TrEMBL record:
Belongs to the class-II aminoacyl-tRNA synthetase family. Binds 1 zinc ion per subunit. The gene is alaS. It comes from Buchnera aphidicola (Aphis aurantii). It is found in: Cytoplasm. GO terms for biological process: alanyl-tRNA aminoacylation; negative regulation of DNA-templated transcription. Consists of three domains; the N-terminal catalytic domain, the editing domain and the C-terminal C-Ala domain. The editing domain removes incorrectly charged amino acids, while the C-Ala domain, along with tRNA(Ala), serves as a bridge to cooperatively bring together the editing and aminoacylation centers thus stimulating deacylation of misacylated tRNAs. The lineage of its organism: Bacteria, Pseudomonadati, Pseudomonadota, Gammaproteobacteria, Enterobacterales. This is Alanine--tRNA ligase.
Length: 877
């Protein structure tokens, strides 16, 4: 009986457990403490530091089934998914690891026993082929002398381009880091027809499928030209669960294994296709797995970083759903089925099922219209081309006008065998960037320009004023020995009480002074490990090595501290009301207001906003102590402190705790008690991008001032309405009803006027080659009605061109309408373009209706004559 994928995973782990390995759980798809990786892409990621220093190890032998995602960088399988039988975005990597324990002989022996032993995977030895690094004679001998592999089944792979260690069989983590030779094990799917070295080289990845890679970590790459031996040697192996499952289930495609077949059948039930080998079914089945695991990890679709990868996967999946006839939202319907079928090993996914479904549904709804429009236009453009190559302008137009992603355009063209002019796309994009910069003013980011290798001690948590030494002075980004009265610059000290802009909190203001010299600090920023005091010397002189006193504006700092503590309360309240799906994406804390950006896939209701305010204010009224503690990063994680743990932190971190309501890692300044905040009021909530929300709020006296302003506005409105707080609402409702009644009456009168105008202006209709032409000038006519008149005339006449000018003092609008049957000869948009060029106006529109405007009315009659002449020539031709 064939083993299921779940059984294969378990067998692998049990085998290595018998060999003294500790089974460790898969780490997160979001790498911890590793800014070089977007996603976990290999089983060894979580053990990266152990390879360089095995003394740090907790275990000598480890085995895992690691969840991986490969969608970018060195390992990017996204474009291959569906078009090959074995590439995936999400997959599981089975691995065994040795940290300065066993090495080559044991690693190879274990692999061979697991694969070929009747007790374990029982694969026919004749179907297994081996590759080794050409210079790794030790590994070659182990295969020949100990495992007794036939020399006909083993091949040496050398370096490329005569570059040492540049080989498919020399594994490297990156440009630097642990590395070493590797040996790969291949399964031959077609042993009868492909049985020698030449066949192996020609058919690698087609008939000869790599199923296991054993890496011998024995070197450390210092640079592109320097590799040194490691003191400790380790083993890193990887075997794709999906690949070994296809071998053991005797199928020639990962998509024919039990896990994928169940999923593909479920997806197909929503579609119009009965062909289970359809490429689109494969792509959707792969991508839905990635989406579910990413959303579980709190990745939300957005336009940057990990969120962009998720959005890209969803949109690619949606296009393939369209291809097989699925045009109604259905991704969220697959989720319960998927979770049900993986619950044996991934039952933790169940807890976020609702969040996953809602995220997929929201993103699918948002992009469906864009996809439909973009595909229609792209297909029209493809039909027009004659050289089987689509222009960069078209690619950019689809992206810029409709938001149609470039990678989807490339995907469609690839399928149809059409080349794309990507250089032309980049050129168009650069043109737009340059155009958008014209007339723009940019703030100079000094801390990017000035690079200082120095240190400044921050003592501002407890002190508002200290004595300090001037280390450096910069004026106009240049180092100088002194600063004189009236000059602006940046002063660097050995220590300071000024908090530099960091973590969303703005920098302190205040003054630096000594005797008669005074420097006003307008801002404080970080420059590497030091702190710059930005401002102007209003009196006296300062020079390097002078001593001075630093004094912050305490009221300014106090208000910042209040708003920063309120931000922490807001963060916890959001998670309490909206759920733990909320993840911080950014913040701003000033002395007057606070702003908080976070991921959340749904709209936030007015009532939710009120609940959030109530929760925050309830904590304020409790007047709880705000505690500051220092502890290790591991201790902070155990306390479930909120933090962006993928960011880099020191080994000792600063934790801000507000009783049992909020606990966060934070380097900013805070008030002593929640009661200091006074009153918390949300002033605005918005969506800054798909899946990313923003809340803005104020506290303390700012909140009171806002309430007074709102009260005064209500009082003014009440006075105008001659109403009081009791009948205020009734008065407004009556007024709205009255306005609606008047609008109905106006519409009736306007329709009568439109009928009158149509009768009046049809007398001006001219006939050109059987086509009607109507040009008419109106004075301050209702603009909406002019469009209705055009629509009616187009219905009344089969072939008509209409041009309406609507004068309003020195300004006028133009509307052009053309019946559909004439758009092959001329369009409304062409008419508007001629008009805007001649009048220095602006405008746009479509083939059948377009509009523009201008303030240049002097040459109107001349412009209309030119347009009429152009129409004549077009119709005559």
């Amino acid at each position: 009986m064939k083993k299921t994928t779940n059984e294969i995973r378990q067998k692998f782990l049990e085998f290595f457990q018998e060999k003294g390995h500790t089974i460790l759980p898969s780490s997160s798809l979001i790498p911890k403490d590793d800014s070089t990786l977007l996603f976990t892409n290999a089983g060894m990621n979580q053990f990266k530091n152990f390879f360089l220093n095995p003394k740090k190890k907790k275990y000598s032998r480890v085995t895992t089934a690691q969840r991986c995602l490969r969608t970018g960088g060195k390992h990017n399988d996204l474009e291959n998914v569906g078009y090959t039988e074995r590439h995936h975005t999400f997959f599981e990597m089975l691995g065994n690891f040795s940290f300065n324990d066993y090495f080559k002989k044991e690693a190879i022996t274990y692999a061979w026993e697991l694969l070929t032993s009747a007790k374990w995977f029982n694969i026919n030895q004749n179907k297994l082929w081996i590759s080794v690094y050409e210079n790794d004679e030790e590994t070659y001998k182990i295969w020949i002398d100990i495992i007794k592999i036939s020399p006909q089944h083993i091949i040496k792979i050398g370096d490329k381009n005569n570059s040492k260690y540049n080989s498919e069989n020399f594994w490297q983590m990156g440009d630097t880091g642990p590395c070493g030779p590797c040996t790969e094990i291949f399964y031959n799917y077609d042993i009868k027809n492909h049985h020698d070295f030449s066949d192996f080289l020609k058919n690698k990845n087609e008939y000869f499928i790599e199923i296991w890679n054993i890496v011998f970590i024995e070197y450390n790459r210092i640079s592109s030209k320097s590799i040194i031996p490691l003191e400790y040697k380790s083993i890193d192996t990887g075997m794709g669960l999906e690949r070994i499952s296809s071998v053991l289930q005797d199928v020639n495609s990962n998509y024919k294994t039990d896990v994928f077949q169940k999923l593909i059948q479920n997806i197909a039930s929503f579609s119009k296709t009965k062909n289970l080998n359809n490429i689109s079914l494969k792509i959707i089945s792969d991508h839905i797995r990635s989406c579910i695991f990413l959303i579980y990890e709190n990745v939300i679709p957005s336009n940057e970083h990990r969120g962009y990868i998720l959005r890209r996967i969803i949109r690619r999946m949606l296009r393939h759903a369209y291809k097989i006839g699925i045009k109604k939202n259905f991704f969220h319907k697959i989720v319960p089925y998927f979770i049900e079928n993986i619950s044996e090993n991934f039952n933790f996914i169940k807890e976020k099922e609702k969040q996953i479904k809602e995220t997929l549904k929201t993103e699918e709804i948002q992009f469906s219209e864009t996809l439909e429009k973009g595909l229609k236009i792209l297909n029209i453009e493809i039909k027009k081309i004659s050289n089987q190559k689509i222009s960069g302008k078209t690619i950019f137009y689809l992206y810029d006008t409709f938001g149609f992603p470039v990678d989807l355009t490339l995907d469609v063209c690839r399928e149809k065998g059409i080349k794309v002019n990507l250089d032309g796309y980049y050129l168009e994009r650069e043109k737009q960037k340059k155009h958008s910069k014209i007339g723009s003013k940019f703030y100079t980011n000094y801390n990017q320009i000035i690079n200082i290798n120095d240190h400044c001690t921050f003592e501002g948590y407890k002190k508002n004023t200290i004595k300090a030494l001037i280390k450096q002075i910069y004026i106009n980004e240049k180092l100088t020995s002194s600063i004189l009265e009236g000059e602006s610059g940046i002063i660097f000290l050995d220590k300071t009480c000024f908090y530099p802009e960091s973590g969303g909190q703005v920098g302190d203001i205040g003054k630096l002074y000594y005797k008669k010299s005074h420097f006003i600090v307008k801002d404080t920023k970080k420059y590497g490990n030091t702190i710059g005091h930005i401002g102007t010397l209003i009196k006296g002189k300062f020079k390097i090595n002078d001593f001075l006193y630093t004094k912050i504006d305490t009221l300014y700092r106090k208000n910042i501290q209040i708003n920063h503590s309120a931000t922490h309360l807001l963060h916890s309240a959001l998670r309490k009301i909206l759920g733990n799906i909320v993840t911080q994406k950014g913040s701003l804390v000033t002395h007057t207001r606070l702003r908080f950006d976070f991921s959340y896939p749904k709209n936030i209701s007015f009532y939710d906003i009120q609940k959030i305010e109530q929760v925050v204010n309830a904590e304020i009224y409790k007047n709880n102590l705000i505690k500051v503690q220092y502890c290790s990063l591991e201790e902070a994680k155990k306390k479930k402190a909120i933090a962006l743990f993928e960011s880099k932190y020191n080994s000792i971190v600063r934790v801000i705790s507000i009783k049992n309501f909020s606990i966060e890692l934070c380097g900013g300044t805070h008030t002593k008690r929640t009661g200091d905040i006074g009153l918390f009021k949300i002033t605005d909530q918005s969506s800054i991008s798909s899946g990313i929300k923003r809340i803005e709020a104020i506290t303390n006296s700012q909140s009171i001032n806002l309430l007074h302003i709102q009260e005064n506005k209500l009082k003014d409105i009440s006075t105008l309405l001659k109403a009081n707080s009791v009948n205020f609402k009734n008065k407004i409702e009556k007024l709205i009803t009255k306005v609606k009644d008047l609008e109905i009456q106006v519409n009736i009168l306007q329709k009568k006027e439109n009928i009158h105008q149509i009768k009046k202006i049809t007398e001006k209709i001219e006939d050109i080659k059987g086509v009607k032409l109507l040009i008419n000038i109106f004075q301050k006519y209702d603009y909406k009605s002019l469009k209705l008149i055009i629509d009616q005339l187009k219905k009344d006449f089969k072939s008509i061109i209409i041009i309406f000018i609507n004068k309003n003092n020195n300004h006028f609008n133009i509307i052009a309408g053309v019946t559909k049957n004439l758009t092959n000869f001329l369009t409304a948009l062409e008419i508007i373009k001629i008009f805007t060029q001649l009048s220095n106006g602006k405008g746009g529109g479509k083939d059948e209706i377009a509009e523009g405007s201008s303030v240049n009315t002097m040459n109107l009659s001349k412009i209309l004559k030119i347009i009429k002449s152009w129409i004549n020539s077009k119709l005559e031709n």
